[in-house]
Amino acid sequence: MIKADPSILEVWVVLPERVLLLDIAGPMEVLRRANVEQSALQFNVHYVGSSARAMSSVGIPLADIEPLPSTIPRGAMIIVPGSADNIAFADDVTQAAVRQDERAIVDWLRACIRPGHRLMTICSGALLAARAGLLDGYSCTTHHAECGELAVLAPRAKVLDNRLFVIDGERYTSAGVTAGLDLMLNVVSSLTGHACALAIARHLVLYLRREGADPQISPWLAGRNHLHPAVHRVQDAIIANPAENWTLRDLAKIANTSSRHLSRLFNEHAGVSITTYINALRVALAHQLLTGSRLGLERIAERTGFASSRQLRRAWRRSYDTPPVALRGSQRQGG
Fold first, then answer.
1. How far apart are CA 158 and CA 115, in angstroms?
2. Which residues contact 59 (CB under 8 A, 6 or more apart)?
3. Of residues 178, 156, 177, 153, the one with CA closest to residue 168
4. What is the DSSP letter of 5?
5. Which residues lie across from 174 on neighbouring strands?
6. DSSP string, 154-173
7. What's the pTM?
């Protein structure tokens, strides 16, 4: 298998006939912005299909599509978007062409996807992956109207409905359409950092909402599902440096409001108090240091803005059932 450049992630977008244009444009715009916002990891996108042309769901033809490659480098991401569901209204020739195109894609997926490949499906693209047997043994999702069919096509998969997206190992599946944006923002956050994902979301005026498969909201993404610019400025400042000795007065200056008004706005739009928000980010940062460094708890408390390890433990208990030392112990056992 071809060895991948660690600074470049190869992305192969498979274009089925009648592909849903938003399933492509949304996630790919996220990757385009990721290449602008940072340079450590660049996303190199290829558009491939069973033929050189495909008709999109909105009637715009797509041309110069590359052939389905015979090999894919390890570590690459393969994205299978959904397609329009109005094939029943097409003529017999069109229906036959669509079915032939789908069979070609399914055969290619079955032959080419191997361990080490990230497979992402948007909307009904999950049905093609299921037909190729690539979701067996995984938790997955798709558009709510297709979950029943997905369960039939992938009886050995765990189909989860009412989810924006599900990430299980090397399988990434989403409910489709705008949920493809949520999934790709999550992937970019994990690969390049939450600051990059936040910058992209702000640029697209699509504020990060929640993690798709995790019932717990990531502290870095929580409270961002609003459009109030002053609250976002405050959140951006806190996220940039959670350990800072933030005072309400300092943050009110950033928001250009009074302290009392900022407290009200923050509770209304972020859904939590400023103190709770800051402590949640500090605990998340402490979690990263516990798993990624050998620092002692007192030093971690200092690094994350807590006055003492005792204060860190007290805040930690609001997020975790086990103490921080238990996490450090499990890391040692795992190593």
1. 19
2. none
3. 156
4. P
5. 165
6. -TTSEE--S-SEEEETTEEE
7. 0.67
Residue 244 CB partners (closer than 8 Å, separation 6+)? 238, 305
- Would you give per-residue pLDDT tens digits along the chain (335 residues)? 445 567 999 999 999 999 999 999 999 999 999 999 999 999 999 999 999 999 898 889 999 999 999 999 999 999 999 998 654 445 565 778 888 999 999 999 999 999 999 999 999 999 999 999 999 999 999 998 899 999 999 999 999 887 788 899 999 999 877 889 989 998 998 899 878 888 898 788 775 554 444 333 467 777 776 768 899 899 989 988 999 999 999 999 999 999 999 999 999 988 899 999 999 999 989 988 887 788 999 999 999 999 999 999 999 998 888 888 887 655 444 43
| Structure-block tokens of residue 276 | 């709770």
Tokens 């290449």 correspond to what residue? 35
Return the residue matching tokens 């499990």: 330
167: β partners:
172
Nearest to 316 by CA among 332, 296, 297: 297
- Two tokens, residue 81: 């978007």
Q: Is 123 exposed, middle or buried (0-12, 13-18, 19+ CB in 10 A)?
A: buried
Pure H helices in the chain: 21-37, 92-112, 125-131, 147-153, 179-192, 194-203, 229-240, 248-255, 259-270, 274-292, 297-303, 309-316, 324-334
* Kind of pairing between the strands at 118-121 and 171-174: parallel
**Residue 96 token pair:** 């036959």
DSSP string, 30-98: HHHHHHHH-SSSEEEEEEEESSS-EEBTTS-EE--PEEPPS---TT-EEEE--B-S-GGGS-HHHHHHH
